[in-house]
Amino acid sequence: MVNLHGRDFLCLKDFTQDEVQYLIDLSSEFKEKLRKGIEHYYLRGKVAALLFEKPSTRTRSSLEVACYHLGLHPMYMDVTTTQISRGEPIKDFARVMDRYVNIIVARVYKHSTLEAMAKYANAPVVNALSDFSHPLQILGDLLTIREKKGLEGIRIAFVGDGDNNVAHSLMFGAAIMGLEIRIGAPEKYQPSREVFEQANKIAEKYGGKIIVTSDPIKAVKDVDVVYTDVWVSMGFEKEAKERIKVFEPFRVTWDLVEHAASDFIFMHCLPRHEEVTDEVFESKHSVVWDQAENRLHSAKAVIYALLKE
Ligand code: CP
Ligand code: NVA
């Protein structure tokens, strides 16, 4: 029986296949409850701190709605309005929040900020995106892939910035579920050796496969899922000009996806910029709205799993 009570949720690589499977199942159960109008105020009276150092559309709103549906109060904190912006140490913030709230969710620039929070707060800490990973996103995405394609023998291509948070988490998530994941990225933006080795070790354990290539066609050849993300992640705006030039051959165009399986699905964590053409984004292959919806159900699953007694 999986029990995640009190755990932090910083990176998917910290979880076993059974645990991730449990969270996907739970997400699906919450989705069904909402569809049927079954109330689920299981965490009434609890409070979640939602600290954001960066902008957000989906993560913030799905978390706030998830909290509301579960009966928790979501306390949104824009970092610029806290004393952190004037130099208050994160470890002090964590120790104070620990006295007020039951769970701390944070979107941060540096992953080490989350690790410091987790070290100093007894309350569970949830990663709402860091420079290293975006596990809430990929948990919802695994539910989407399962709904559309099942999770047996699926091949996924991530095309674009292979060294960003979403690519990292997709590698870990796919590896944990025993899937094949191909990263198609320019050499300079491929996953680091360290991340590759971490993901590969997990893939070996669960029968998954990780392939990294600088050939976008090789990446998408016959795959079931084509996934992309922005070329300029939050925090990298200064590099925009150079990045857009280097990533150009990795744009998800109709010519590229013609190499995927004929019934492939297109996924994007959103927001989108220039990395995918409208032709692909608006096509019948695109599942981006279901994918965005599933963020709500998976956010709920994580908060509930970490807090339920
Ligand atoms: N996909 C995602 O995390 O979106 P936001 O940046 O809008 O939260
Ligand atoms: N890689 C993107 C994801 C946004 C949800 C970023 O970090 O900006």
Explain this structure.
It is a single chain. The chain is α/β, with parallel strands linked by helices and 309 residues long. It has two domains: 12-133 and 293-307, Rossmann fold; 137-292, Aspartate/ornithine carbamoyltransferase (Rossmann fold, 3-Layer(aba) Sandwich). Helices cover 44% and strands 14% of the residues. It is built from twelve helices and nine strands. It has helices spanning 17-36, 58-70, 90-100, 111-120, 135-149, 165-176, 193-206, 216-220, 240-247, 254-257, 278-281, 288-307, and strands at 47-52, 73-78, 103-107, 125-127, 155-159, 180-184, 209-213, 225-228, 265-268. A five-stranded parallel β-sheet has the order 7-6-5-8-9. The chain has a four-stranded parallel β-sheet with strand order 2-1-3-4, with helices on both faces. β5 (155-159), α6 and β6 (180-184) form a beta-alpha-beta unit. α5 packs across α12 (288-307). The longest helix is centred in the first third of the chain and has 20 residues, at 17-36. It is globular. The mean pLDDT is 98. It binds phosphoric acid mono(formamide)ester and norvaline. Phosphoric acid mono(formamide)ester binds next to α2. Norvaline binds at residues 129, 164-166, 229-230, 233-234, 269.
